[in-house]
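Shapes recur. One chain:

:::
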Amino acid sequence: MSDPTAIIIENGESVPTQLPIPTEKQTRRTKRKVLPKLLRVAGQIPFAEDVAAAYYCAVDSETPRKAKLVLFAALGYFVLPIDAVPDVLAGLGFSDDAAVLTTAIGVVGMHIKPTHRYAAQRLLRLPNRSTPPADRN
């Protein structure tokens, strides 16, 4: 890979997709801003559980680095104050955020475990449909 600011996603096409790699500074900012924004807008977006599960997967030490990078890039887009469709537009504001997150989950979703979903449901005070984490005694 010649560009250190991108990871290559082999997508079966002749030209692979390049995704930006968030810097450590961007990753720290994303960690600091995701949950407050999510809790503020959770009632307005149908994909709040996916945002929370992606966050818990991204901060999990067992998640592979490439998966973390993809998730942090998508979560970083979610917290950006300026994006393709402003979040303040009723009905459309979060559609671009949903598309970016859906793409990221499509690429690395196999790393989002039931424990991440369970933590997301607890954060958002949703009925738990996922298995609680196993007792690690």
In short: The chain has a mean pLDDT of 78. Helices lie at 24-41, 48-59, 65-79, 95-108, 114-123. The first strand starts at residue 6 and ends at 9. The two ends are 43 Å apart (CA to CA).
